[in-house]
Design goal:
569 residues, alpha+beta, Vitelline Membrane Outer Layer Protein I, subunit A, 5-stranded antiparallel sheet, 4-stranded antiparallel sheet, globular, DUF7600
Length: 569
């Protein structure tokens, strides 16, 4: 960590100390960015680095560029900003009005429930809301209209935890102040470069703080181990295998398993709380009416979303390589909650959706790489490594009294991107050549609906382009209209000078359409062979097409010497 960033972190936590040990553990549980040297959180460090989502899928965690040269303010000193004294001078007011008196507003008490409160209460409510929330509230309540002229309200924006808290020089400033003007002078577009950089770093610290505040609950009522796992169904990120020597000191992708916690769902369940911090589900809290809350994972109560439910029928989960990103609760009656967390850009699975009334829940939590600890025994020093807590849930498993079917449809058990295909789509369950998703680990299946809704785009297809330097890296359909790449292109790999592109024409506007696709695979055996090669890699596939007008059939053979592990359906 840069010294200036460390100083800002100290300012954020003043008057308390930075929880250094927790910071160390959380950071060591993160992978290092591939093609980069920074810890990978899933964000772009405030546009400082470029995430490669063009030539790689989001869950592949690729960094294209470690420093955005156009972000010139990122090189400026974020701690000692020379322009701040000038900003404080410009906002000086010798006779400010700290607030406004009871505004002369006609109060419609029948339609505006806030009209009964005195102005001081309105200001207190406003001080605890975001500016965007206030603007929305004003549209529905005339009582809040004058708040935008209140110096008291704008002064609250500079307090700890608010959107201008990064201007910490204000903390020791006793001069009279025009807070409205200072707020305007410190907006992103008007700020000097050094202050822009401080704000960028401060925003990142605010993302980090909930993780440092979390801790693994060690409720003695939890059953951390079990004699049997029969009948339990699990969803997990890309959990790395621990060797006899332990986990590696660093890793570039996936996550590390620290422990698993299991509990029985209380029969008098009332609510389920999910702790959500930025891009991760960190903890689950089961709330009942008559017993102590059951906590799984890392609980952050200030970042908790609570779902009202008396029975759990299952979960829909968004999972990337680093763990659980978002969850959707399936209630006992089959209804679904809204997403908790952000599923955008993340493979989705319905593996835990239809389990019946869940009576057992198990979560896996991550671990930081082992930290060295020097010990002494009988005068001899030993260096050993101890496992430390991470900060998020990386797996969720559930069981119900009902037995899990031996054959679960591919549509339900796989990880799908960008979404779970609808039940009406044929997913070639019987001829699926990939490894069973239940045993394959984290292997998302990508798919595209190149024909569009009800085949609306088929008449616009003019060709298909297959790219690969031996491997089939991408299959891209071409159209005579502009369509998003998410519809046209399957597979993401960078086109280089070594790429081989095969383009085949399809006369969609003339009525030609695809009638069938045949694929052939080749299998490899051996100890050093990747698992997906043992199950078979694509050797060639054949597309058959029929032009409606001429009623003649032609076939196009697309040959490939190799294949990457992206299943084509």
């Amino acid at each position: 960590m840069h010294d200036l960033c460390w100083q800002l972190l100290q300012k954020f936590y003043e008057p308390d100390d930075v929880p250094i040990e927790r910071l160390h553990d959380v950071c060591r549980s993160l992978p290092l960015a591939i093609l980069g040297s920074c810890a990978f959180w899933g964000h772009d460090y405030g546009e400082l680095i470029t995430l490669d989502t063009k030539d790689h899928y989001p869950w592949e965690d690729r960094v294209e560029n470690e420093f955005n040269s156009s972000l010139t303010h990122a090189k400026k000193d974020p701690y000692d900003v020379a322009e701040i004294p000038e900003l404080l001078t410009l906002s000086y007011n010798s006779s400010p009005s700290l607030g406004i008196t009871q505004p002369h507003v006609v109060r419609e008490t029948k339609s505006d429930c806030f009209a009964i409160f005195p102005w001081e209460i309105i200001e207190e409510i406003s001080a605890n809301l975001l500016v965007s929330d206030i603007l929305a509230l004003i549209r529905s309540s005339r009582t809040f209209g004058p708040i935008l002229s209140s110096q008291t309200f704008w002064a609250s924006r500079f307090e700890t935890g608010k959107d201008r808290a990064f201007l910490f020089e204000k903390r020791n400033c006793k001069e009279a102040r025009d807070w409205i003007k200072l707020y305007q002078l410190t907006k992103r577009s008007a700020s000097p470069p050094g202050l822009k950089n401080r704000r960028r770093i401060w925003d990142l610290i605010q993302c980090l703080a909930p993780y440092l505040a979390s801790s693994l609950d060690k409720n003695p009522k939890l059953s951390l181990t079990s004699s049997t796992r029969n009948g339990i169904c699990e969803v997990a990120g890309d959990i790395l295998v621990e060797f006899d020597s332990g986990y590696p000191d660093t890793f570039n992708q996936g996550c590390l398993l620290f422990d698993k916690q299991r509990t029985t769902i209380p029969s008098n369940l009332l609510r389920v709380g999910f702790s959500v911090a930025e891009d991760s589900i960190t903890g689950i809290r089961l709330i009942s009416g008559v017993q102590e809350d059951i906590c799984l994972g890392y609980i952050i109560k200030c970042k908790e979303v609570v779902i009202e439910t008396t029975s759990l029928g299952g979960f829909m989960l968004a999972v990337d390589s680093r763990g659980i990103r978002a969850v959707r609760v399936i209630h006992g009656d089959g209804n679904e909650s809204d997403w908790v967390g952000n599923p955008a850009g993340t493979p989705i699975t319905g593996r835990l959706m239809k389990l019946g009334d869940i009576n057992t829940l198990e979560v896996g939590v991550d671990v930081s790489t082992k930290r060295p600890l020097l010990t002494m025994t009988k005068g001899t020093k030993y260096l050993r490594r101890i496992r430390q807590q991470g900060y998020k849930i990386i797996s969720i498993a559930a069981a119900s009294p009902h037995s899990i079917p031996l054959k679960i449809p591919l549509q339900r058990k796989a990880f799908w991107y960008p979404s779970i295909p609808s039940p009406g789509l044929c997913l070639n369950d019987q001829s699926f050549t990939g490894q069973d998703p239940l045993t394959a680990g984290y292997q998302p299946l990508a798919w595209i609906n190149f024909g569009g809704p009800k085949g609306a785009y088929l008449k616009h297809i003019t060709g298909v382009c297959v790219t690969g330097p031996g491997n089939i890296c991408t299959i891209e359909f071409e159209y005579d209209i502009d369509l998003p790449v998410e519809i046209c292109k399957l597979g993401r790999r960078k086109v280089t000078d070594f790429s081989i592109m095969n383009r085949f024409k399809i006369d969609g506007p003339g009525g030609e359409y695809i009638t069938s696709i045949d694929a052939s695979i080749i299998r490899f055996e051996g100890k050093n062979v990747y698992p997906f090669y043992r199950w078979g890699k694509l050797f060639s596939f054949k597309v058959s097409m029929v032009p409606v007008i001429h009623q003649t059939r032609r076939k196009v053979n697309l040959l490939a010497a190799n294949w990457i592990p992206i299943d084509v359906i």
